[in-house]
Specification:
single chain; alpha/beta; Aspartate Aminotransferase, domain 2; 2 domains; binds pyridoxal-5'-phosphate
Length: 402
Amino acid sequence: MTSTFSYAGRFSKDSVDTEVIHPTHAKYDFGTAYPPPETAPLNELVEGLIAGLEREGHDLVYYPDSNGNLALREFTAKKLEADRGFKVDPEDIFICAGSGEANYGLINALTDPGSTVVTERFVYNGTLGQLRAAGCNVVGSPMDDDGLIPEALDELFSSLTAAGNKPRMLYTIPEHQNPTGTTLPTSRRKQIVDICHKHGIPILEDDCYVDLRFFGEAQESFRALDDSGMVSHVASYSKLLLPGLRLGYFVASKEVRERAIGFRSSSTANHFTSLAVEGFLKEHMQEHKDNQNAALLEKRNAMISSFGEHFGGTGAKLSEPQGGCYTWLEMPIGTDMTSLRDKAFDAGVGYIAGSVYAPNGDGDNYARLCFGYESPEKNRDGVALLAQILDENGMLNAAPRD
Ligand SMILES: Cc1ncc(COP(=O)(O)O)c(C=O)c1O
């Protein structure tokens, strides 16, 4: 028998010990943003795949075009023009393994270790992790119920620049933000475009949730408001369809795009699933959006009404998003949702504590509750149980709101 080979001293200086994540599910799973399982269009995706394979399945023998399947890029270009108000040549769209891969490439193309990047005060933990892994110093900018506050962003840019830490980019999730659920009004987006031009700071717009709108109109995308090349636009088919498909995309100026693709983990996105997605969406996109959003809205409303019943008068607040799959729970200051998390999970309620999304190190009194996965009944019962768990731990009515 040979002895175990030792890698001591052989790892790259940038490699880190990374835990493999095995998803765990609480009885009431409000932790992860899964789509409603009952509206997953599995049979129709298979039909889309068959149509795609009949048309161009023979091309699977090749490594496909490095910017992704052409039919899906053509479909995506039409979708962007119709839904997001900007025209883009299919040649300028890059299909990736989810928007996560798109963000990864753009972050690494536009920052160096030690760079400062500004995000919303609370920001999707996946991107926060990517920014930190790239060595960035991440600073959260103040938000209110409408998302980023332009005046505060302007001041933050000025003070960071004056301190020698001029931000290398603004990363923002303007539509149904993860984790807060806020949507940034077009008027603020216009102000932010001007502010970013004034400071010379590019915008990475993560439009992952735009398809999940229950009512009202989508606000204009940053990319539609600015075609100078300052905005890189990322989006995903994980939220409209299914995360397991691992397909997203980005649009950026040629010079940014050509740098970002150097950080891809593979030569091209999955051609096979691209055929299924294009085949499905071409036939069924609107019908699917309507089904999925109706299901999400019912689940959102169940969570909000149960919250009203069980948290009324406690000083807790729950956001009421116009779309997406999250509500944002704000408990009175001093309520430690971070330390309660494991206990709540074991007692049956999974959530993610606000501190996980907080570049500035705050957020203990917040939690993200996803309403998309469980049934409306389970959303109601799970919120009731969360109130009970907080109460049993002396955390309901624990502190007056200031
Ligand atoms: C804002 C945001 N960006 C990117 C992602 C990554 O998603 P995917 O890589 O599945 O497209 C997520 C996933 O939750 C997200 O919330």
